[in-house]
Amino acid sequence: MNYKIKKSFPKDFLWGASTSAFQVEGGYLEDGKGLSVKDIPSPRPGITDTKMAADHYHRFKEDVALMAELGLKTYRFSISWPRVFPKGNGEVNEKGLQFYDDLIDELLDHNIIPLVTILHFDLPQALVDLYSGWLSRQSIEDYVSYAKVLFQRFGHKVKYWQTINEQNISLLIPGFYGVKDEDPDKWFKMKYQMHHNMCVAQSKAILSFRELCPEGKIGPAPAFFQAYPASSDPQDTLAAHYLEEIHNWLLLDLNVKGEYPHLAFSYLHEKGYTPEIYEGDLELMKKATPDFIAFNYYGSKCVSIDRGPTRIENLEYEGNDIRKRKSNFMDIPGLFKTVENPYLKDTKTEWMPNVDPMGLRMAINKLYDRYRLPLIITENGFASTDILEEDGNVKDLGRIDYVSKHLKACHDAINNGAELFGYCVWSFMDLLSTSQGFGKRYGLVYINRSDEDEKDLARIPKKSFYWYQGVIKNNGENL
Ligand code: BG6
């Protein structure tokens, strides 16, 4: 075996930053766009909606110019399905496609490699109304038709593609994709069916991609959770193992190997949550091996055995408002529950319960060990309120510290032999947080607006922007 151990970031490392369509674009019904499930939930009082967001739809040229100034090698963004198919299927909206044509051309003109996510949460609402979205197998055909339109239109100029963003998180939240059931057992049965259908959809899309874009590269886009046992009690170790099986490998083993991992499958079977699997589904998934794994990482989980009641009772919250959850949305009663990790700095905020760069290093090593596929991190970032000071600066030193530590962890994992070809900060600019609007910011670029007041939406590079600019310039040598 030929082990190649690198000692630094590869010279063609893709230094990047990310966004997603509904979180930045605005123009939510412009030029024929249809509604998505993310346009529908009425935001909580005081939280803004998707109508304007960061107004990227109208200001993308200014944004790309800033990306070029930053020195980005890649920009990871998503295409809005209902902008391309306002009803989810049927007639294509040319104006929607044109927007992405223009954005991609602008990126290429600035030597920035586009990395496109086909679906980042914003499923067309029309498909939910028509057949309950991902719950129906019709969604598989519609996702593939949509993806094919993108491959045909942009495949000659976009090399890197991601299938579906964070399927493993989105399905933890009842109603996230427009459907739910108040009965927890019924909901769990539904969500594992949706999970299966989504896996079939992306594998089918990958097979079409092979025909339409033989030179391109495509991969899944899960969130990854590093789990630690809360103690050396073997039962806690088993609990941590269960968390990783159900929240990580259940998705990735299907995406990469076309297999249900046995521990997770036995859990589904025992609880009566096994999805309907059509003949040929797993064979199809086996054929559709991705070229790489893109993953998102924010922090880790500490897990103990749950000796409490086995009934799922954490459904009582609105949308994904974590403050309304009775328990952590990742917990599975009777199997495991997440607890505080005494070894990690408590950020004193529910937004980022812990900061764990070593967890990222382990995530990279585990993923590489299990699948031997090249890896790219497509989201990693720091949430804070961020204040525009009177001198015009945003001194987001916490973000610099966070990203710097996580990049050092990437460097360590590369030294350990893992093939990591890129890293994208979440997010390039401030955007509509999926749960807390503009009150919670992730950007390298400040957007001058609040939830209550759209102000002038001016773009103001934060301290972290200039710091990251230096990192990119030195290819990570000065971390
Ligand atoms: C990831 C999503 O889960 O986390 C992003 O892919 C999201 O879309 C990010 O913005 C942070 O979550 P939140 O709820 O703070 O926006």
UniProtKB/TrEMBL annotation:
UniProt entry keywords in alphabetical sequence: Glycosidase, Hydrolase
Gene3D superfamilies: Glycosidases
InterPro entries: GH, GH_1_N_CS, Glyco_hydro_1, Glyco_hydro_1_AS
Catalytic site positions: 379 (nucleophile)
Record-level GO cellular component terms: cytosol
Transmembrane segments: none
Domain of life of the native organism: Bacteria
Cleaved signal peptide residues: none
Pfam families linked to this entry: Glyco_hydro_1
Any GO BP annotation: carbohydrate catabolic process
GO molecular function: beta-glucosidase activity
Keyword Transcription tagged: no
Family note: Belongs to the glycosyl hydrolase 1 family.
Protein name: 6-phospho-beta-glucosidase
Native organism: Anaerovirgula multivorans
